[in-house]
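note to self — DONT lose this again. spent like an hour looking for the file last time. sequence + predicted structure for the chain T wanted, 404 res
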Amino acid sequence: MKKRLLIFGLLAAMATTVTVSCSRDDDGFGSGAVVAQKSNLTVTLSGKDISSYKNVAVEIQEVNTGAITKYNFVNQSAHTFDLPYGSYKVVANGEAIMVSLDEVQVGGTANIDINTATSNVLVNLQIKQFSQDFLIEEVFFTGVKTPDNKNYNNSRYFKLVNNTDKVLYADNLIISGSEFFTTVKRVITPYNVEEYFPISNMMVLTGSGTQYPVQPGDFIVVADNAIDHTASNGFDLRNADFEFPSNNPSLGHVDNPAVPNAAVVYTKMSFNMIFLYTTSQEAYVIARFPAGENPATFIQNYKYTYSYTNAAGNTTTVNSYKIPNSWIVDAVNTSRDADFLHIITGASLDAGYTSASPGYSGKTVRRKVLGQTANGKNIYKDTNNSASDFTRDSQSSFINGIIR
């Protein structure tokens, strides 16, 4: 019996020592020792339009001690942790599935002071899908019908968005339309869609290099004519950032002196004109000149001469220009389902096509919105597949004018 009592006494002493060692105010002895208290902390993930959390890594750090607890949320939105009282920062990063079934990168943080037996913290996740440069957010090329049912060939535009998390500069950005059509397919020699993009026109947004800053989530508009077209059922484009010039008297362009003109580097059309085809059949790209290149060197070094056999069986030779794929930062193919024959960009630039029809319908193609940043700016879908990234036959975002 004495042996048993001795053993029990030793165990009790050991238990007392372990408890004290966990004390936050351990002096080794005395009644002032404090036993560390713990809480059941439930971390819940949340995000607008997120349907599930595919794999989100969560890191919980106690800010005073630096102690870190890690856990991966795999197809779950909540988990409970057993943690000591303290002040914690919760960081989450990973992949989530949107209600649209798109897979996106997400991240979020939260802070919480734990001082009760049970605690809860909500981590609001934001989409982190950022591009490296501007994206083509919208193209209006179809045209409209006037009130007296005539075709109106003005008020076309490009809307380009800064889909990054940094300030971008529109200075010296290239905008070009395709030499070939998605609805016409010939045996072209030479032709390598994975190396270059043959063009029918090129305009450049001139600037000093830092003259036209665009904040994250903001956009610029490049209009064919930056005036109010609403009397003809077009759009009010007076607040455009640039306009592309034309000397064609039949189009009735009136220069807006408050809006800078883009520089036309090359066009196949007369009157120094750049014109977007009314029917879905072109591709459009935006690009950057790499170091050492500029409009003059482009004209000198990037000529593109190709040939094909025409309907009469003769060889047709055409002179044009081409943009190396390495310069291109975004691309969109357009086509008509009944007439589609091929994609006219490299697959890594754009693997599908979008559409707006019929001609003069006032419809546009617009990039899909995945979510919003913490300050309410849209984040746009960018998978390099216009069939997935764009909404067809959209209403213009400028139905009430250019509002920022």
